[in-house]
Structures are given as structure tokens and as C-alpha cells.
Amino acid sequence: MNPLLTFSAAALATAVLAGCATPRSIPPQDASMAPSTTAAMPASKEGHITSAGDVHEYQLANGLKILVKEDHRAPIVVSQIWYKVGSSYEVNGTTGVAHVLEHMMFKGTKALAPNEFSRVIAANGGRENAFTGQDYTAYFQQLEKSRLHISFKLEADRMANLNLREEDFAKEVKVVMEERRMRTDDKPRALTYEHFAATAFVNSPYHHPIIGWMDDLENMTVDDMRDWYQSWYAPNNATLVVAGDVDAKEVFELAKKTYGKVKARPIPVLKPQKEIEQKGIRRIIVKAPAQVPYMIMGYKVPVVATAEHEWEPYALEMLASVLDAGESSRFAKQLVRGTQVATSVGAGYDIYSRLDELMLFDGTPATGKSVEELETAIRAQIETLKTELVDQAELDRIKAQVVASKVYEKDSVFYQAMQIGTLATVGLDWQLMDKFVERLRAVTPKQVQAVAKKYLIDDHLTVAVLDPQPSPVAAIGGHSHDH
User: Fold this and answer.
1) How many CB atoms lie within 10 A of CB 375?
2) Which element (helix H / strand E) includes 142?
3) For a tag on the chain, would you pick the N or C end, based on fewer CB atoms within 10 A?
4) Per-residue pLDDT band at 395 (split at 50, 70, 90)
């Protein structure tokens, strides 16, 4: 399923984002800040407002793209600043730098003390946080609408004036290392996914975990932070998304007074890093303390940005939904309740990535069943999609579920902004979010069959199995536990 709709596969949920909480202690204040400037590059010409429905687009002279989604149902506003840089921009030896810098962005500027950013937002009744993905790093605040100027001042300030102190870095990188231990090293399924992704992708930057390899974190320096910040954190490499009870023209004017003072900088040009062609099934076993086995398998597939034909990603999306879209889907009916080969089984696919992705299938075998039997059962369901057309009535039912979920999404102002930001930052037209339902509805049973035959083949397949090991505590006579 599309992660903008739901995370179906357990592994996908642990792998997509590294999000970080920040301290929230409160002394009320509103710092008044004017960002200083950095070395400049030729700025783009300030554009005019273009609108599509209730979304309005504008570009500042320094290259900052601004997208405003007006939604007047409640007096709140969400502001998100998206930088076009994530873990897939890292190189060997520096993995995790995007995520560590996300932490460091809360450690103060020339105008703000460490963690004062969070205190100011909290004092004004707001909430804030940040997250790092494969293709982006984003920072957000949700506030009462009259407080939007505070968000803009704070974010524009740290876009240009971040303090990167050695003492702050030394503490924060240890925080990230502990986060890695808790989220990955001590989580057998997350650890399995990490090894799985590193096996599936060889030279694609999706080979690396978002949080970084531990060895790279241990050898990271504050100079790595400075280089990353100077290379990528610039208005001409960012998109500002604002959603809520606002007037678009007023937002654009406020952005000129704050973000508009930050000068553009040259941005590095990425190498293509196209994944090499896979020549056969890849299999790994991951041994880790756990109570039950687990399996994850994935086929290399295109996404909207890379597909040969426009309809293919949407057909893949429907394929995943036919297999895993709730209790009435094929996996639930046939593998969990029917043959009872699995206690849980899911499918996942990220349609909006920068590079080719994986169609994921994961699950836990039922008591008395093996991971081999589970894999055989999943692959049998896939083979059925290749040999038999999906019934039109079944496909229509799945489409109706997806359309309903799209309607529910609009209840969240934050989620509307996140959809826009994701698309804009991975290099896609943000208006695709309004075409998603239309293109899904156009998918035919023959197209579902075609993408199954074309992409879900052994030469595109990687399989990882978690082999449960006794807990170290149990080995010395204590009580075992699953992480």
C-alpha cells in the first residue's frame, strides 16, 4: 500500500522515516530575528502566484518554493519546511549525517540558545518536530493561525545561522547512537529489514539505513555536520508548505520578510546511482534474539518518477491492495483465516520515491508452520495474479476503499501538507496528489496482471528470514523476552 495511505508491511513502517522528539520546556518568549546571509549564487527571478483549486504556489527570488493549502475549517496552521536532501544523498562513510543534522538543528543559532526553538514554539501553544527520510528532511510546527510569523522567523533563522558546536555534537551523536540501538539493533524485525535492504540494493543509495551504520556514527565529526549544512540547507533547495486557516497572499508576503532574507547558495549535483541489474534471487538469514520467526521479501519495481509507462505504478498499487487491503483482502482471507499459514502477512509499496523501490511482502508464520511455507503461500498468491485476471467486482471494491481513505485524509491539515511536501521534494508535480484517485480508478485487471508478470519475477526478488535466537538473559537462566 502507498505509505501516504497506510503502512501495511511492518518492516516498511520501521524503515521509512527517522523522526525525532525535541525537548519541550516552556518559558514564554517570542524572539525577533532577522536571518543573516551566506555566500550567494545567482537567484531565480521571483515569480507570480499560480493556483489550482485551494492550493497556491509562489517562488521567492532566492529560489524558495512556497505552496499554500487553504483550509478554513479550524483556526490552526501547519508550517513545514522540506529540504531536498535525505539519507539517499549520503555517501559511504557518512551515513546517518542527514539524521544527525536534523537533531543538531535544535541546538541553537546566533540568536537562539540550544533548545530555545522548541521552548518558543511551546510557549506559543504550538507543537513541533522533524523527520528524516530517504529523499528529504523536514521540520514542522502546528500553531494557532496568528502565530505563523513565529514559525517563519525561527525556521528562516536556522536555515542560515545554525550554531554547530563541538560540545553539542558530541552529546547529540551519542543520542542518535542510542536511538539506533533501541530502534534497530534491539528490534529483531527492524534489524532484519536493515540487512534485507542492504542485500536488495547494491549501489542504489537506498542500500543505507536512514539512521546510519553504527561505525559511521562512531566516526562522524562536527565538520561532517558543517559540510552537510552548507551544501544542502539553502532556500533554493527547500520547499515551504503551509496548510490551514490562512490567506495565501498574506503567507507569501510574510515569507518574503523572513525567508526572503536568506541568500541562495550553489547546490551539489547528484550522480544518478542507478541500481545494477539483479541476476537472480538473493537470500539472507538474520540471527537475532526473538520469540518467533519472521520473513520479508521484496521485488524491485519502478515508482511514479521512474516508470516506463505512467499507469504501471498505479497498477502495482492496486496489486498490493488486492492482496492486502484489510480483512476482506486475499492475504487475510486465504493465508490468515483460510490455510492459517500466517498469523500476520502484509504488502507495502511506496509509489512516491525518488528512485526505484521495492514491492514488499512480510509476515510471521502460524504456530506449526515454517517461513518456507509462508513464502510458498505468498508466492502462490502472486502467481495467481499472473495467471488469472482479477475479477472486476473485486477490483472495484478495492478502488472504493482507496477512494474512501483519500476522503478521510483530508480531515488532517498536517497530512494534506505532508502529501504536498513529499511530492514536491522528490521531484514530482504536487498536483499528482489530486490525480491519484483518478489514475487508480483507471487501472484495469489486465494492467494488474501485466505488472505482476513484468516485475514480480525471481530475478527481481530478495528474501530475508529472521532466525530467532535465545535471549542472552534466558541463556543464563533468566526470563526471556522479545524486543
Assistant:
1) 19
2) strand 137-144
3) C
4) very high
Helical axes 392-409 vs 312-323, angle rounded to 10°: 100
Mean of the per-residue pLDDT values of the chain:
89
Contact call for residues 123 and 245 (beta carbons, < 8 A): no
pLDDT given for residue 41 in this prediction: 47
158: Cβ contacts below 8 Å, ≥ 6 apart? 105, 109, 112, 117
Quick count: other Cβ atoms within 10 Å of Cβ 393? Answer: 8
Give the whole-number percent of the chain exceeding pLDDT 70. 88
Q: What is the distance, to the nearest Å, from the Cα of residue 377 to the centroid of all Cα atoms in its chain?
A: 29
- List the beta bridge partners of residue 66: 58, 240
**Among 247, 265, 245, residue whose Cα is nearest residue 255:** 247
Structure confidence at residue 13 as a pLDDT band (50, 70, 90)? very low
What is the pLDDT confidence band of residue 272, given thresholds at 50, 70 and 90? Answer: confident
- Which band of pLDDT confidence, cut at 50, 70 and 90, is reported for residue 404? confident
- Helix (H) / strand (E) element for 196: namely helix 188-200
Angle at 302 between CA 427 and CA 190, to 5 degrees: 90
Q: Are 138 and 237 in contact (CB under 8 A)?
A: no
Please report the pLDDT score of residue 428 as a whole number. 94
pLDDT at 473: 60
Catalytic residue among 57, 102, 155, 312: 102
Q: CB burial class (10 A; 0-12, 13-18, 19+) of residue 62?
A: buried
pLDDT at 267: 97
Q: Is 90 a catalytic residue?
A: no
What whole-number distance in Å separates Cα of residue 323 and Cα of residue 346?
Answer: 8
Cα–Cα distance, 350 to 360 (Å, whole number): 9
